[in-house]
């Protein structure tokens, strides 16, 4: 009557062995490596392009809200670093969308279309077989009817 409850250790092992946990771990590792690539692109390509207009480092772009911002005095808004982080985010999002999400969505749509086409073909074959069986039935009824009329 009493059922043995799985131990905490067994539950933890089952949790770790699920595919989703492994996939998530792989995604985090790849995401961390990808972040380094995006940061390099921003620092090596985007910042110099922006540097053609002003400084080479976006962190140097700032605005002062008080009358003087020398040393530790004054209120400085470092909007250049926010711009750099925003560019990194937009580039990361664009690469993820165009290189991962969009191709996967197209692939899944193609697979769904193939599945539906296969089901549609299967239905056409069934309908065709049904029509053939009806024709055979009608031919047999006609033969039986003509055979009975001739006697």
Kindly summarize this structure in a few lines.
This protein is 76% helix and 3% strand. It is built from three helices and two strands; from the N terminus they run H-H-E-E-H.
The poorly predicted ranges are none
Q: How would a textbook summarize the main sheet?
A: 2 strands, antiparallel
Strand content: under 5%
Radius of gyration: 35 Å
Number of strands: 2
What would you call the structural class?
mainly alpha
Outline: elongated
Question: What does the average pLDDT come to?
Answer: 79
**C-alpha termini separation:** 77 Å
Specify the helix fraction band: over 70%
Elements, N to C (H/E)? HHEEH
Report the total helices. 3
Task: Itemize the secondary structure elements and their pairings.
Blueprint: H1 8-17, H2 19-51, E1 63-64, E2 76-77, H3 79-150
Antiparallel strand pairs: 1-2
Helix pairs in contact: 2-3
How does this model look, in words?
- With 151 residues, this protein is mainly alpha-helical.
- Helix content is 76%, strand content 3%.
- It has helices at 8-17, 19-51, 79-150, and strands at 63-64, 76-77.
- The chain has a two-stranded antiparallel sheet with strand order 1-2.
- The longest helix has 72 residues, at 79-150.
- The model has no long low-confidence stretch (mean pLDDT 79).
Key terms:
two-stranded antiparallel sheet; mainly alpha; elongated; 151 residues
């Amino acid at each position: 009557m009493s059922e043995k409850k799985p131990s905490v250790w067994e539950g933890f092992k089952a949790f770790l062995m699920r595919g989703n946990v492994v996939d998530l771990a792989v995604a985090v590792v790849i995401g961390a490596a990808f972040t380094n690539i995006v940061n390099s692109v921003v620092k090596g390509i985007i910042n110099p392009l922006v540097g053609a207009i002003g400084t080479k480092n976006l962190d140097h772009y700032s605005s002062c809200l008080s009358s003087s911002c020398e040393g530790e005095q004054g209120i400085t808004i470092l909007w250049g670093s926010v711009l750099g982080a925003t560019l990194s985010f937009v580039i990361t999002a664009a690469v993820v969308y165009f290189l991962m999400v969009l191709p996967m969505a197209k692939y899944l749509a193609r697979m769904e279309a193939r599945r539906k086409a296969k089901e549609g073909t299967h239905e056409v074959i069934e309908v065709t077989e049904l029509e053939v069986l009806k024709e055979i039935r009608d031919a047999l009824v006609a033969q039986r009817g003509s055979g009975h009329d001739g006697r």
